[in-house]
Amino acid sequence: MVRKKLSCRAMGLNCGFEVHDESVDEIVAALAEHARRVHKVEATETMRQKARDLVRLEEA
Ligand SMILES: [Zn+2]
Asked: Ligand 1: distance of its center to the CA of 17 in Å?
């Protein structure tokens, strides 16, 4: 399995939070949870789709 990552910064927030996982669904879920807890933002379907598009393979 290839590790993937998504940073809060990539979503346009000034925040150092990053999610690393092998599953895109897990990454999107974790970022949605983080956004709700830390940024008081409810993840919409649009945001989830954007997050999915922004997931990158982790550099070795
Ligand atoms: Zn954040």
From this structure: 5
The length of the chain in residues reads: 60
How far is ligand 1, taken at its centre, from the CA of residue 19, in Å? 10
Smallest Cα–Cα separation from 50: which of 20, 2, 11?
11
pLDDT in tens, the chain (60 residues): 789 999 999 999 999 999 999 999 999 999 999 999 999 999 999 999 999 999 999 876
Residues 45 and 17: their CA atoms lie apart, in Å, by 21
**Nearest-angstrom CA–CA distance, 22 and 24:** 7
Tell me the pTM: 0.89
How far does residue 1's CA lie from ligand 1's centre (Å)? Answer: 26
